[in-house]
């Protein structure tokens, strides 16, 4: 992963190029709040927006893109199919509903939000059809472990191009990272700042002082140097701009290993094998 500036991209398995840094809009309110956040991001150089049907703000995301000063084809847009919409026909309907809310001709990346047991393989077949019909440029999954990925690869014609999981210094999952790398599946991290919990860590604070950066900037730089696409969420202009200011320094191998050592397998969200109870 080349990290020259905010325009830096990774190339997915099928050749599609994806910006290494994006804006996550989870919990951003539909309407003016999410519109403002996306405009702050576009003005700061972001060209990657991550939403989902579950976030209930796809209309605002689409409006922000249409009213922004950046051409649609320059913006990489991700959305996701929610748990209640699994199954082949349901997924196709859910995709069209998302596309209509976004008012976009195509989606850059469409993801399965959670691997609903007994249903995600059928849902994946719908994603394959959407991909073949060129309604989406790339397809992938979220919140999966190695066995989910292997199951999809063993029972499908097209393997996931990307895995989006919770990822931060307290949850590294190096074996899963290595598995994805071996199988050319791009890793993308949600909650890269551990919902703010990582910002008081003394090790990261020490590195922040050394580089005259914030703890968030140190953490996001580590994220990218691990080869993981980052999508920090914020609706605040100064934070969105700060999160993008991570391309003028680099962490040493020793410092990367030091941050890796903070791993405690701590999650802020549900475990992919036990998430159904979480959403009841």
From TrEMBL:
Substrate binds at residue 113. Keywords: NADP, Oxidoreductase. The active site is at residue 55. Residues 25-263 form the NADP-dependent oxidoreductase domain. InterPro entries: AKR, Aldo/ket_reductase_CS, NAD(P)_OxRdtase_dom_sf, NADP_OxRdtase_dom. The keyword Acyltransferase does not apply. The record marks 80 as: Lowers pKa of active site Tyr. Belongs to the aldo/keto reductase family. SUPFAM superfamilies: NAD(P)-linked oxidoreductase. One of its GO terms (molecular function) is oxidoreductase activity, acting on the CH-OH group of donors, NAD or NADP as acceptor. The keyword Zinc-finger does not apply. This is Glyoxal reductase.
């Amino acid at each position: 992963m080349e990290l020259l500036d905010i325009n830096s991209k990774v190339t997915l398995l099928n050749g599609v190029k994806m910006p290494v840094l994006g804006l996550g809009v989870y919990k951003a309110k539909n309407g003016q709040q999410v519109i403002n956040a996306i405009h702050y991001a576009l003005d700061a150089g972001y060209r990657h927006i991550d939403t989902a049907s579950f976030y209930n703000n796809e209309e605002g995301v689409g409006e922000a893109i249409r009213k922004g000063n950046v051409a649609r084809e320059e913006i990489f847009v991700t959305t996701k199919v929610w748990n209640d919409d699994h199954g082949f026909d349901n997924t196709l309907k859910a995709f069209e509903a998302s596309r209509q809310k976004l008012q976009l001709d195509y989606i850059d990346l469409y993801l399965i939000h959670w691997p609903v047991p007994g249903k995600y393989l059928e849902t994946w077949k719908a994603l394959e059809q959407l991909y073949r019909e060129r309604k989406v440029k790339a397809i992938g999954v979220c919140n999966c472990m190695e066995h989910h990925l292997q199951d999809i690869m063993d029972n499908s014609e097209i393997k996931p191009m990307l895995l989006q999981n919770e990822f931060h210094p307290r949850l590294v999952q190096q074996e899963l990272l290595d598995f994805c790398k071996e199988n050319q599946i791009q890793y993308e991290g949600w909650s890269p700042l551990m919902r703010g919990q990582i910002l008081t860590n003394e090790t990261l604070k020490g590195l922040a002082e050394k580089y005259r950066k914030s703890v968030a900037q140190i953490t996001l730089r580590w994220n990218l140097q691990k080869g993981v696409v980052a999508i920090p969420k914020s609706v605040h202009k100064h934070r969105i701009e700060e999160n993008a200011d991570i391309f003028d320094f680099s962490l040493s191998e020793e410092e990367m290993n030091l941050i890796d050592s903070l791993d405690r397998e701590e999650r802020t969200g549900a475990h992919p094998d036990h998430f159904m109870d979480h959403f009841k």
